[in-house]
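Anyone able to model this chain together with 4'-deoxy-4'-aminopyridoxal-5'-phosphate?
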Amino acid sequence: MPRTAYVNGRYVPHRRAAVHVEDRGYQFADGVYEVIAVQGGWLVDLEPHLRRLARSLGELAIPRPMSDAALRHVLAEVRRRNRVQDGMVYLQVTRGIAARDHAWPKGLKPALVVTAKSSKGPPAEAREKGVSVLSMPDLRWKRCDIKTTSLLPNVLAKQAARDGAAFEALFVDEAGRVTEGSSTNVWIVTKKGRLLTRAPDAAILNGITRQAVIALARAAGFEFEERAFTLREVRNAAEAFLTSTTAFIVPVIAIDGTRIGDGTPGPLTRRLNTRYRDYVARAVRAGDRRHAS
Ligand code: PMP
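re: yes, here you go
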């Protein structure tokens, strides 16, 4: 089935979808994005994604391309036209098209692109057996809370992980503390059974999956704290895992070749995973299918 993309007001065949050479997203990575998971035709946690998008745009003084109601419609329509039941919807807003100059002219119209594709998420093996990760210095800027398309350090880190046969690269700041993964948030369970993830400061993206898992951990009464932890604490942890829209919850069983815990997905990770899957399944069943066909 041919795919369809939305580009600046038009639904076009995906293979012919294109933006202008002077789109500031292309020239300066001057834009933001969101990736929203689709499960059973439902756009998972759509509202928090829209709120985060509005925040990212606001921080960069990029006007909203359209109202949230119109955007919900476009997202649903792109999902529907691509017949995605399980997969993702991608949206990107750039500052717009202008003659190349670092500073931008007044009155630019932001550019909006939306695509959708079916996918099964991370391989079952990663989710069931866990994955290895590598650590890497965090070379990024000081506003990682903004979900910008400017992802070069993340791209290089993920490639280095892949070249090293690892699933993810964990960024470590100058004080030896883990910030986040190249496209995931990082969690550990200490040997005392305390669940930790870094507080949402400017060094990390406040993941939507992260926020959902925090709510689930609190509801379940797990001992939980939002605080930064060091690479050493990861090595000494009983369990570790990653969260993201596309990976959901992925157990981490080794870092830089050192086993974490007993080298298998831990019990708390498994319980949270079950709760997260139930949460998504419940939401699909509950008929929150406004965006489904
Ligand atoms: N951190 C970074 C750097 C990311 O790119 C992502 C994925 N968008 C995440 C964390 C996880 O965020 P979310 O749960 O919203 O996908």
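Residues 267-285 form the longest helix (19 residues).
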